[in-house]
Every structure is written in structure tokens, then in C-alpha cells.
Amino acid sequence: MKKYIAVLAGDGIGPEIMKEGLKVLDVLAKKFGHTFEYKEALVGGCAYDKYGHPLPDETKTICNNADAIYFGAVGGPKWENLPAELTPERGALLPLRAIYGLFANLRPAVIFGPLADAASLKSDRLKGGLDILIVRELTGGVYFGKNKVKSITLKEGTVQGEYAVDYMIYSVPEIQRIAKVACEAAMKRSKKLTSIDKANILESSKLWRKVIVDYVQKNYPQIQLNHMYVDNAAMQLATNPKQFDVIVTENMFGDILSDLASAITGSIGMLPSASLSETGFGLFEPIHGSAPDIAGQGKANPLAQILSGAMMLKYAFGLGKESNAIEQAIMAVLEDGYRTGDIASAATPKDKILSTSGMGSKVAEYLTKI
Ligand code: IPM
Ligand code: MG
Questions:
Q1: Among all residues, which ones are annotated catalytic?
Q2: What are the φ/ψ torsions at residue 106 (nearest 5 degrees)?
């Protein structure tokens, strides 16, 4: 199979971890007889520095012509104070999600058995591992409602001086289509779905809940659906995560809860994601940010980037076997005790603590052996 991949490494640790992601994909391609053609493009702060825009036309053209987008991370203190539309996050990442209609963000929070020690919870709460799938709505809600600000009229005298407004908006079709993705995922798993909202306060959440209930009752009555307020869900995730299987939630709640879920699994450096459109086009990126504080030091964990590559194989190219091979290689590397600093414990021998490139090479080496 020949595939054309837009490679957008971005800022901070992005380029370091992307290098490892591609290293593993190269080994995979050779092993299974595929050809991956990479087309690298600048995105985020580095693109702003070169072109004056974090998502230049050159980059969009490369993405338009690609079979999938493999993304690293963007942002950093250097670009934080630019006008909002030129920041890496609001000028590049969000537009990419919007342009390609990447409304369905799949974030699997899985504990790799050997990492139970690195997890933030006592192991008895994680007995038998953990395997949660967070389905985060990615192109709606408060992240994309901001342009309505101008139409707001506030009662005279209620606002003095500067103010800021963010609109959290959801329409029925937006909720239905993410419900469909979550239900399809739940049907392939334990048929258990938890929808997370704040329906005791927010109108957008009340609509969310009503539409989810209707959708599931009508289309997937065999699914066991329950609802949780987001504050309670955070507590439940932190204390009893094994009660969850598939979670569906709106954009910002999904952002926050997926960071929490990653800490439960050991490290934010372990969680990949797939952002998919209705036609199956996708962008694949780790859930973590660009970590400018550790950039260039070889300390970053490349596994979320590598696992995002595995998700790309599975969801964009239909290469399930190949995707599994990468996961198996990672499992074997971890079973043999290799760690990056973020997932190491006091008991990890020094010679088993690997750098970013050391971990990428180790996964590549194990992959050839599978
Ligand atoms: C994520 C990130 C992004 C988000 C940031 C970088 C804009 O935190 O993908 O979770 O908030 O969606
Ligand atoms: Mg986030």
C-alpha cells in the first residue's frame, strides 16, 4: 500500500518525537511492504517565524493532498502574546480541526501492564489494567463559539470596563454525529457508554443530554447509557476509573478529562489521539502539548507520538495488523523494563532509562523482531 502523509512536527518537543514516530513507521513499512511518502510542512510557531502565519498556505496545500496528517505539537511562550488568530493553537491547530471537519477525537487511555507502577493510582484500583476510550467532540462548543461575541448585547450598566465572552454552542446534528461515533465504538467494546456534561447548569449540556438519550434509544437500545456531571466524572476518574469504558463528551470537558485520564495511565507522554472527519480523513497527534521546558534535551517520551502513528495506520489506512504490531512492540519494550524519564520509577535501573531517540530506536528494534 502506498500512502502520502503530511508530516507536521510543530514546535517544542514536536520535532524530536516526530523523528521517532517516523523511525518506527519506516521500519513498519519495510516489514509489511508498504510505502509511506512523507511531506513535511511547518505549523505553529515555527511557521509563524518563517511565513508570518502559523498555518501557511504551503502547509494547507500539503495537507489537502495527503491521505492523512501526522501531527506533533504546537505552541510555546515565544508566541503566547501574539494576536489570537496568529497563535499556534488558535491560528493553526483549531483551524486544521475545523477545515478538515475533524469532529471526532478518539483518545484511548490504556494502561500498558508493565506501567501500572507509574500510574498515579494505587494498583488495587487498577487491577487488571485500564482501557477507556474518550470520544471528545472536537469542532464545536466553547472552542469554536467565540465569533458570536460581537452579537452580544449586555444590559446597560451591567458591564464596566473590559470584559470577555466565550460562547458554548452545540446544535442537534453536531451532538448526533458524535453520539454515532461513540455508539459505534461502544458496540465494538462492552456496549457501555457514559455521557459527560454539566446539564445541571448549562443549556448546551441540557441539549447534549437530551440528544444523546434520544439518539441511543432510537438507534442503539442495546447500549447501556449513563450520564455524569463533569465535576463528578473528574472525581470518579481519579478514584474509580475502571467503571468507565467509552466516554462521550463535549470539546472542553474532553480536553480536561483526557489530561486527567493520561495521568491515571502513567504519563501524558503515553496518550495518542485520532481526530476524524465524516469521510474518515484524519489528523493523528499525541494529546500532550509542545513541552517547551524540556524541548531539545532528549527527555520527551515519544510513545504517544508513535502510538498516534499506530492509530493512523488503523483508522486512516485500515491497517489493523500493522497498528497492532506497533502496540505489541511498545508493550515488549516496556515489559523488558525500558522507560523514558517520565515513566521511570525509583526502581528503574539507570541503563534502562532511555532518551527520546533511545526509546524510538528500541521500539523500532523490537518491531523488526515481532
Ligand atoms: C489538546 C490540546 C489542545 C486543545 C490545545 C493545544 C489547543 O490541549 O489537544 O488536548 O485544547 O484541544
Ligand atoms: Mg488538551
A1: 143, 198, 231, 255, 259
A2: -100, 125
Reported as a single tens digit per residue, the pLDDT across 126-145 is 777 899 999 999 999 999 98
Asked if 37 and 5 touch (Cβ cutoff 8 Å), the reply is yes
The whole-angstrom separation of Cα 254 and Cα 251 is 5
CA–CA distance, 255 with 136 (Å, rounded to integer)? 7
Q: Who's near 84: CB < 8 A, 6+ residues apart?
A: 90, 91
Atom of ligand 1 nearest to the CA of 255: 10
Cell 446544535 belongs to: 171
For 52-84, the pLDDT digits (tens) are 999 999 999 999 999 999 999 999 999 999 999
Query: Does the Cβ of 307 fall within 6 Å of ligand 1?
Result: no
Spatial separation of the C-alpha atoms in residues 187 and 185, rounded to whole Å: 5
- Say whether pLDDT at 351 is over 60: yes
Residues 126 and 119 sit within 8 Å (Cβ to Cβ)? yes
Of 257, 259, 260, the closest CA to residue 248 belongs to 257
CA 208 to CA 215: how far, in whole Å? 11
Report whether pLDDT(220) > 70. Answer: yes
Q: Give the residue from 365, 367, 355, 369 showing the smallest Cα distance to 302.
A: 355
- Rounded to an integer, what distance in angstroms lies between the CA atom of residue 334 and that of residue 329? 9
Residue 289 CA to ligand 2 centre (angstroms): 7
